[in-house]
Amino acid sequence: MPVFDEKHEELDHYETMMGVPRGRLAVTLDTITDAMALVGQHGVYCQSQRWPGKPVMDIQIVMKNLTDAKELIQSVMEELKKN
Closest by alpha carbon to 49, among 57, 41, 40? Predict the structure, then answer.
């Protein structure tokens, strides 16, 4: 699994701090946040012709899905924290 090799240091840090499940979710959140930043930058250059000042529809959809994924992961982390 290449992601475990690539993110080894981050995983080790967060898993030590928060435990394995929450640590892996924390690294996942960081990865999604990085993806959101890249998509957001792309959205600056790909503006909608129909709605000036807004990114094209596919970028809006990707950003919504990434935002929803982050929210779901955060809710799982909170549930794990309670237990």
Answer: 57
